[in-house]
Amino acid sequence: MSEVILQASHINKSFHDPVTIPVLNDVSMSVNKGEFVSVVGRSGCGKSTLLYVLSTMDTDYEGQLWIDQQLVTNQKEKQLARIRNEKIGFVFQFHYLLNEFSVLRNVMLPGLKLNRYSEQETEHRAMERLKMLHIDELALKNANQLSGGQKQRVAIARALINDPAIIMGDEPTGNLDKKNGQLVFDIFRELSLQYQQTLLIVTHDPEFAGNTNRIIEMEDGRIIRQ
Amino acid sequence: MNYKLIFSISFSLMKARWRQTLVAAVGVTFSITMFIALLSFMTGLNGLLDGLILNRTPHVRIYNDIKPSKYQPVNLSGEYKQSHNFIKSVKSASGRQEIYNSAAILDMLRKDNRVTGVAPKIIAPVFFNAGTIDITGVINGIDVQSESTLFHFNDYIITGKPIDLKNVPNSIILGKGVAEKLLADPGDVVQVTTSQGDIMPLKVVGYFQSGLQDFDKVQCYTSINTAQKLLGKPNNYLTDIQVKLTDLNMAPAVAKEYGALFQADTEDIQTANSQFETGSFIRTLISYSVGITLLIVAGFGIYNILNMMIYEKMDAIAIMKATGFCGSDVNRIFIVIALSIGLFGGVAGLFLGFGVSVIIDQIPFRTAALPTITTFPVNYNPAYYFIGAIFSLVTTYFAGYFPARKASKVDPVVIIRGK
Ligand SMILES: Nc1ncnc2c1ncn2[C@@H]1O[C@H](COP(=O)(O)OP(=O)(O)OP(=O)(O)O)[C@@H](O)[C@H]1O
Ligand SMILES: [Mg+2]
Fold first, then answer.
1. Average pLDDT for residues B373-381, to the nearest whole number?
2. I want to staple B233 with a disulfide (CB 3.0 to 4.6 A). Which of B7, B71, B215, B237 is the partner?
3. For residues A56 and A89, what is the distance between their CA atoms, to the nearest angstrom?
4. Per residue in B118-151, pLDDT tens?
């Protein structure tokens, strides 16, 4: 069996607003290195909530979570930030680019925070990733001068800058038209096939899910099939 | 900790909102400018007004007061030691106002290293005879040199040369008010009658103006020798010894010590002028409160811009936290913004404050009371610049503290869900 990148065991989570509603119910799952996994399920079944827990941003849950063999449950905020920085790349439905910065700088920011490479090297690495996604000619533009599809590709480049152990996405194609959605999917596919990048993507699109290695299906806070 | 990154993000955020940032910085600049200008001017004024009194008042004055003897004969008698003695109608003794053994005292004072200077003096009430009327006055026999160095005597001579008191025999410098009453010009001779009835002609060599009207209507100056001659006393006769100390605050203690040592009455400057400190204190207090009020207002400006920035930049904060920036990084980014506004605004304020002080210093200000002053007084004390710099940083830090804390606590999940 290959290396496990992400493992969750018996995750429970409820919202208390104002009555207690259970949202995740004894969720256990794992993702192996190089897998391209999609998470599907009806709206409101808890897909996003699960992804936020798996991404370490939401710490209010019961159960245990390992990322890259490291237990992250009950770690300190600073430590979790470090883990996200180093191990996880994010792509959301919305691009979340910083308008104050150029495209290149946006991609570089998590790399500069990691501080593993010098600024020149980080810049070089950012350029490489932009080239890989065929948007290197946009590097010096401001983030707000880009189209929706271009922005999402920049967000993917940003997610890749620190060679993360896993890329997580919450409906990354949800805001895009058919053509751009296909483009983003193809990028994920290429990352998975060519670079053995591990991916965990929440999606509503059955076609998208159908083309991944494995589908995790959720219903009412439970995993019913994986 | 990667400060270079923090700074670069801070500056990018400021650049994106440079107009508001500038307004916030100008607020700080304005308040620091006012703070510096106000404090420099007010303390300059304080120095001037205090000088009006302090320059002319000895720290310790040694004299013999006219008063009833403490020891009545019956109390000294051994026979009645155990009794209660009732004495009625006690009168002041006609004892001498002269300081005993003045030469030895002067010698001793000059050797005391707490003392910066000693000026002997003779005070004698006199009448000036002008036609049919007699005008009361007081003649101060002084040592011109020590009186000038210790009490700026020569600053207050508006006509004539102070040294003429020494060089011209039987000369007198009249208070401006006295001179006006006597219609005496320099070179004229005035008749002076002592309380003993001796009459002596003295030659007017100048006018004296202190700025205190009542003072100038009475006080006149001669040399010590002339005063001794006028009173018919030997040349060791002195009624007052004025002492200046290295440290003004020692005056009460030193006065007490000298009183016991020389068996004379002493008076310290604090007792003689208990009110002058109150005025200085109030003026300083006003300057500080105005400066600090302005700074607090500027602080609210910074608070506002930061809050607005954070509100606008929620998405940016959320994604930074999602991609690995921790709460303290975000906190530092906004603290750096606040402190930069404080620093640049503050430094500009210090320079402008200095500029305004220089301008105030050029404004002509002439008053009869202060013959040596030609422009508004300004105190360029570096301490105020230091305090201003500290204040600007401290207020901006506190203005930034709460917004920055709010930013550091932003929960990325809440923001990302909200989209
Ligand atoms: N902050 C909250 N307080 C209370 N309930 C919440 C909160 N956030 C989410 N929920 C509830 O939790 C459930 C799961 O929400 P979640 O966003 O995970 O669904 P989802 O599967 O991602 O849906 P979608 O496909 O529409 O994005 C929903 O019923 C939602 O109403
Ligand atoms: Mg969702």
1. 84
2. B237
3. 12
4. 999 998 889 988 777 788 999 999 998 888 888 8
Longest dimension (CA), chain A: 52
Do B235 and B294 lie in one domain? The reply is no
Kindly provide the ipTM of the predicted complex, given to two decimals: 0.90
Residue A81 included in any domain? yes
The answer to whether B413 contacts A52, with C-beta atoms less than 8 Å apart, is: yes
Q: What is the CATH classification number for the domain harbouring A169?
A: 3.40.50.300
User: What is the value of pTM for the model shown?
Assistant: 0.75
Q: Which of B12, B326, B417 sits opposite A101 (nearest CB)?
A: B12
* Contact flag A98-B322 (C-beta cutoff 8 Å): no
Give the helix/strand (H/E) hosting B203. strand B199-208
Give the model confidence (pLDDT) of B322-363 as tens digits.
Answer: 998 999 999 999 999 989 999 999 999 999 999 999 999 888
Give domain status of residue B84, yes or no.
no
Is B50 a member of any domain?
Answer: yes
User: How far does residue A47's CA lie from ligand 2's centre (Å)?
Assistant: 6
B253 and B300 share one domain: no
Distance, in Å, from the CA atom of A32 to the CA atom of B376, rounded to the nearest integer, reads 82
Say yes or no: B173 and B223 in one domain: yes
One DSSP character per residue, A26-63 reads EEEEEEETT-EEEEEE-TTSSHHHHHHHHTTS----EE
Give the pLDDT of residue A216. Answer: 92
Domain-embedded: residue A12: no
**Would you say residue B79 lies in a domain?**
no
Q: Which of B272, B291, B324 is the last residue of a domain?
A: B272
Q: Give residue B339's domain range.
A: 3-54+276-418
Element at A160 (helix H, strand E): helix A148-160
Q: Are residues B265 and B300 in the same domain?
A: no
SS3 state of residue A151: helix
CA B200 to chain CA centroid, Å, is 41
Give chain A's domain count: 1
Percent of chain B with pLDDT over 90: 17
Nearest CA in chain B to A101: B12
Query: CA of A90 to nearest chain B CA: how many angstroms apart?
Result: 7
Same domain, yes or no, for B296 and B203? no
Residue-number span of the structural domain to which A89 is assigned? 34-62+74-217
- C-alpha separations of B178 from A31, A146, B148, B225 in Å: 107, 91, 21, 22
pLDDT at B129 (0 to 100): 85
Within a domain: B412:
yes
Model confidence at B276, in pLDDT bands (50, 70, 90)? low
Same domain, yes or no, for B135 and B266?
Answer: yes
Which residue in this structure is represented by tokens 């509603």? A21
Per-residue pLDDT tens for B76-87? Answer: 777 887 888 888
**Residue among B12, B322, B324 whose CB faces A100 most closely:** B12
Return the structure tokens found at B331: 């906190």
Residue A169 near ligand 1, beta carbon < 6 Å: no
Is the Cβ pair B322, A115 closer than 8 Å? no
For tokens 């009361």, the residue is B136
Nearest to A187 by CA among A73, A104, A79, A89: A89
Looking at B251, B272, B293, the residue that finishes a domain is: B272
What's the rounded Cα separation, in Å, for the pair A107 and B221? 87
Count of residues for chain B?
419
CB B9 within 8 A of CB B333: yes
